[in-house]
Amino acid sequence: MDWEYINLKTQEDRLHFLEDHGFNFLIRETYWGEHVEYTPLYYACIKGEYDIVQYLLEHGASPTQGVYDDYGIRFDSPWGYATGHKNAELINLIKPYIK
How far apart are CA 90 and CA 18, in angstroms? Predict the structure, then answer.
């Protein structure tokens, strides 16, 4: 699901949605013909929404929780995305939450 699909176009709307509904849901997208399920934290990482990344981490989201395809194959995590893309800002946000 894309944020805009559920009419959450502003960052404030997204944060209110997360406050109201928690983050125990998956965002499902089709990527090159395959279905992929992302955690809200992973999705915020790949979309560059660092305020939401910080919010989710502060509220217990796991930076090492895997992202899986239709076949149940783990292919990434928020921490893996940050380090794999050498994204210093994301690394600095997530590193304190790595256990």
Answer: 20
Q: What is the mean pLDDT of each run of 10 residues along the chain (99 residues)?
A: 53 69 64 75 89 88 83 84 95 94
Tally: H helices and E strands in the chain: 5, 4
Give the pLDDT score at 2: 46
**Beta partners for residue 34, in sequence order:** 31
Query: 52: closest CA among 17, 27, 24?
Result: 17
Q: How many whole angstroms separate alpha carbon 65 and alpha carbon 79? A: 9
Per-residue tokens: 98 = 């790595």
Contact 21, 3 (CB under 8 A): no
Q: Which pTM value belongs to this model?
A: 0.72
pLDDT for the residue numbered 4: 45
Residue 61 to residues 9, 23, 31, Cα–Cα distance (Å)? 22, 8, 24
